[in-house]
Amino acid sequence: MTSTVPAPGTRTAEGSALQAVFLDMDGTLVDTEGFWWEVEAEVFADLGHVLDEAWRDVVVGGPMTRSAGYLIEVTGADITLPELTVLLNDRFEKRIGRGVPLMPGAARLLAELAAHEVPTALVSASHRRIIDRVLETLGRDMFTLTVAGDEVPRTKPHPDPYLHAAARLGADPWRCAVVEDTATGVAAAEAAGCRVVAVPSVAPIAPARGRVVVGSLEEVDLAFLTTLITLPN
């Protein structure tokens, strides 16, 4: 079948080219942001605390250290951050063992990127043990590279994960398109100099220069991501 989608690296009229695509995991490719909140609520219930729903927007999309640390602080729970991290990862891994639902459009987008041999990285704040379990559903062969939150000095909202992914793939960050679902992830990608497609999962995200907001991955394809690179900074 002949495709009209520009091949990766093809120059556009503006002289730019899409060199790589970076995708967040929780809430972007897999419908698991709700799982994390359920697990956090369950673990804190075991500790004798009830989580306020208003805290959900604070912890969504954040690294484990920030999210767990915040919940310890606001609840006053008698537990250390390392202890809580183990409990949360253990409970979440058990939860996703019962199945991981894909976000609408995720399988189609990954298949299209793979078919066109676009360098694609999974860039997540989740720890490696969690990413490896989710890859059993997403497919390891769909990604050129995966970056976990516990494999970089600073994870989202810092730019380190995306700068690391770009360096590993030999790509210029400003020629990389990022798909994210949270303000934390968007901040990380934009700080790295990438162009961003925001697909909000829990809290709204406003459009901005170099950023496009859509309602679903079903609105995103390779042609869309290629055009994103031509947007002004």
Describe the structure.
The chain is globular. Helix 8 (183-191) links the parallel strand 4 (176-180) and strand 5 (195-198). The protein is an alpha/beta fold. It has helices at 33-46, 56-59, 64-75, 81-96, 106-115, 128-138, 160-169, 183-191, 222-228, and strands spanning 20-23, 120-123, 145-147, 176-180, 195-198, 211-213. It has a 6-stranded parallel β-sheet with strand order 3-2-1-4-5-6, sandwiched between helices. 40% of the residues lie in helices and 10% in strands. It has 9 helices and 6 strands; from the N terminus they run βαααααβαβαβαββα. Residues 1-15 have low confidence and may be disordered.
Question: What is the secondary structure topology, with strand pairs?
Answer:
Blueprint: E1 20-23, H1 33-46, H2 56-59, H3 64-75, H4 81-96, H5 106-115, E2 120-123, H6 128-138, E3 145-147, H7 160-169, E4 176-180, H8 183-191, E5 195-198, E6 211-213, H9 222-228
Parallel strand pairs: 1-2, 1-4, 2-3, 4-5, 5-6
Protein name: HAD-IA family hydrolase
GO molecular function: hydrolase activity
Pfam family, one: Hydrolase
What is this entry, summarized?
This protein has 233 residues and is α/β, with parallel strands linked by helices. The protein contains 9 helices and 6 strands, in the order E-H-H-H-H-H-E-H-E-H-E-H-E-E-H. This is HAD-IA family hydrolase.
